[in-house]
Design brief:
The N and C termini lie far apart (49 Å). The protein is built from 10 helices and 6 strands; from the N terminus they run E-E-H-E-H-E-H-E-H-E-H-H-H-H-H-H. The protein is of the alpha/beta class. Helix 6 (140-156) crosses helix 10, helix 7 packs across helix 10 (215-226) and helix 8 (185-192) crosses helix 9. Strands 1-3-2-4-5-6 form a 6-stranded mixed beta sheet, with helices on both faces. It has helices spanning 23-34, 49-52, 75-85, 100-108, 121-132, 140-156, 170-180, 185-192, 196-209, 215-226, and strands at residues 2-3, 14-19, 39-45, 63-67, 90-95, 113-116. It has 2 domains: 2-138, Rossmann fold, CATH 3.40.50.2300; 144-226, Winged helix-like DNA-binding domain superfamily/Winged helix DNA-binding domain (Arc Repressor Mutant, subunit A, Orthogonal Bundle), CATH 1.10.10.
Amino acid sequence: MKPNAPPDKGNGKTHILLIEDNILLQEGIEAMLLKQEGFVVVARADDGEVVRNAKKLAIPPDIVLLDVGLEKEDSIALMELLRDEVPTARVIAMDVLPEYTDVVDFVRAGGRGFILKNATAAEWVATIRAVAAGQTVLPPILTESLFNQIIEDAIKAGKTFQQNGSQLTQREVQVVQLIAEGMSNKEIATELHIATYTVKSHVHNILEKLTLNSRLQIAAFMRKEER
């Protein structure tokens, strides 16, 4: 573990813990982050020892950038340990091009964001700031992969979606289309000039009518319908 000079707590900055076992990449990511206003790298490491000693850090991290392909560690196990050691930290996974199962396992373990290692500096910054602000971020290429895989898994499992889209009202169809575009309830409310709670009501009705369980499945359903 390579701790940096302890920053002043409460300075409004985002404190980042970086775990990456490729040292050159680790140093490059840190250098890129330190050029950004408002970011402080509190420590960087090439294994999970920093997590096991997280309470020794001068200031706990707000964001943990975690390589999901660590050679000597189980990254998912480290995420579970992070929940115990630094419960307020939000974890962003880093990978070149992860498998669908890696993304699913990461999300199930409580991950809040995913960044591809070949992303631009602007994409790194945007992802970190969005997750620090409480959002969940997944790159478009992974979103596409997840949607497609969800549909394929559902078909393999023998699950059938109700195809009767005519049972949806015109407004519900509009909501479904905007969900498929990745809009949040608030964004949909703005787009349709209706209240956010009205959007929530529409989403609830859509899930019941299409016998789906989540917004993600609504988007997957739409993509299946468009094929």
